[in-house]
Amino acid sequence: MNIGIIVNETLTIRMYNDAVEKQLLAKLIKLQRQVDHDRQQCELDAWLRLHLVTGQLKALFFISNRGATTTGKLADAIKVTPANTTGIINRLMEKNLITRTGDSNDRRVILLRSTSQGDELVAELRQKRKERVTELFNRLTAEDAEIVKQSLQIMVKAIENVEH
To answer: How far is C-alpha 115 from the chain's CA centre?
Structure first.
């Protein structure tokens, strides 16, 4: 057999496989976007009732997740300038969602912490997300739920492999 034919057939097969993989990847991304869109719409409905702008909501989640953080770390995390961070912090304090206190170990450091009201708000938003996901999972048959579970386990492994 001619080596050129074998190379051409191999390249043709590889190009076909690449095209199939690209189509599959495009479909997976489209499906993930549909799932994300539903989740985001559910969260958006809850967020719109809060009277908080996006920066304030991001800050509240960040502070609540950290337990305590500094203004600089907050600014870096939510990608705003320190001046904008000050405004966000002041508005969250006015709404009694966070506190600003000195660090007992270093008086130069100011720590931001969420209040019980802030933590309750974050927990409520997380609960709404959990309720929506539960509602969707309850619509699945046992067989489909098992497939989704296995798929999510595979995704978690992929995430763990990227993080390490």
So the answer is: 23
Q: How far apart are CA 31 and CA 26, in angstroms?
A: 9
d(CA 81, CA 45): 28
28 with 72, same domain: the answer is no
Number of domains in the chain: 2
Q: Give the amino acid at 18.
A: D
CB 149 within 8 A of CB 132: no
pLDDT tens digits for range 2-40: 554 554 555 555 655 666 687 878 888 888 888 888 777
Regarding whether 156 and 78 lie in a shared domain, the answer is yes
Structure tokens at 54: 């996006």
Q: How many residues does the chain have?
A: 164
- Contacts within 8 Å (CB) and 24+ apart, 142-147: none
106 with 65, same domain? Answer: yes
The enclosing H or E element of 27 equals helix 3-48
The SS3 call for residue 100 is strand
pLDDT tens per residue, range 76-87: 999 998 889 999
Alpha carbons 91 and 138: distance in angstroms, whole number: 39
